[in-house]
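Suppose a classmate hands you a notebook page containing two proteins, each written out with its sequence and a corresponding row of structure tokens. How would you begin to make sense of it? This section walks through that situation. The first entry is reproduced here exactly as it would appear on such a page.
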Amino acid sequence: MTVGRAADGRPGSPAPDPFPAPPEAHPSRPAVVEPWPQGFSREPTMRISDVLAELQPDFPALTPSKLRFLEEQGLVEPRRTPGGYRQYSRADVERVRYVLGQQRDRYLPLRVIGEALAALDRGEGHEPVGPRLATSDGRPAGLRPAGRQTVDSLAELAGVSPALVAGLVEAGVITSGPGGHLDSWALDVVVAAAALAEHGVEPRHLRGFRSAADRQVAVVEQIVAPLRGQRAVAAQAHAASVAAEVGELCARLHTALVRAGVAGLAP
């Protein structure tokens, strides 16, 4: 910086610096990270019934008590109306979908899922969300039809003859409820049975599979019996969550054992 001089030659006021230093920058403020998932509306416009209608085709075991239990665990935070009713946003629905998917597909306990969600909320990592892949008929992959089916309607959905479905019912592989209706889980059984039929496996040959499944269900029932005996809504929801988790683990174990046995048949 140069110093100017007055008319009498004495030092005067400092002359303006032709290259002034930029103003001191303000300390950077931490960026506010929007809770996961980003890009979804957080306007609470959906009731519990709306959430169930959207998610139950993919997660048939979802109930109002399960939704309340996930809220108690801090995994989703719906808003409350002045009357105390819960209302969910699109972002809330995606969080519920994530939790249920991690339980079903990766057999993760809620504690681990909660830690993963907390990391996503902090902006750590990335979890894609959005529409699921569609099959050739345009239906989202993995979705089951809502409501109960008849033998004829289930056969039409699976693309098989009604005789095959009726044979599975007669053999006790799938069971019918009041009015002869079959639940949506029967579709998976029919599709697998149809594929096995191409190898000469008839419905009567599948009774052993049903018996093995019933024994596994009995094990799960023993595990959750103490929770089911409690009257608290949270305990009932916890029982449903544990039953789903243990049931998937049983299915995973069964699959691993069958694959190991089949591998031993190779020459």
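The notebook's second entry, a different protein, reads as follows.
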Amino acid sequence: MQYSLRFTVFIFLAIITWQLLGCSEDPDPDTTSVEKVIAEPIPAKPTPEDTFAKLKMLFPKPIFDGDFTAMGEVTTSKTYLDFLTEEYRTEKPFKTLADYLIVAKPAPERYKPFLKESIGKSNEEDIAIIHQMTLNYRCANAILYQMVHGEDDRKGALKAIFAMIEKRLSIFDEAPVKAWMEIHLPNQDQAKEFLTALEHFVTETEEKDALLIQEQFAQHGKDDGLLWLAVHNPALTAEILNNFTNTNVFLRWTEGTFFQQNP
């Protein structure tokens, strides 16, 4: 009887020991998978500051060269475009900075005060229309400024005026703008008053952006200032590269020559 009891206890202990050893040697694969996920941290999304530092390493000075060649290389680099796509998500990845400018949503706070005075209550469509008109006006102004104040062609003022007028007139040939003007500004007097107000508004936006650029240059220097601007304000950077071809003329523009002569 005692032998039988001892044998039973022995068998019982052997079964428990085998189970314990089996569990330690052959863990649940699902549990292991979960532990691996927990053990492997998810890579952190690069911050604008990280990207700025990386661009500084990839593109040594000078960035502020004569004709924005270096900035063109920066803004077409994989590092910059990957950051742009990740930071400012859209349906499709950006292939160029110009692609971003096309889809970038305008800041409502920039346009709502002007629209409130011009047409009263505004919506997203109104803001989009005025944003596009403003971009075209700013481009026309840049064309005029560079032709008049450029280093290579100081006698091209008349040509510049025609280019600017053609650029501005092209705005009103666009179907969305035509339809918008017919709805909100049905007669010529209203349209004339609106366009005068728009020109003043556009100049105000240029002044604010020129001041912002000056602040970046003062804080970071011209080379790092352009990189910082590209990371933190890609839409303005896209405008600069689209509208200006000479960095020295651009620098004079930021310092207020245009605004002093056009109060």
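A careful reader of the second entry would note: The mean pLDDT is 80.
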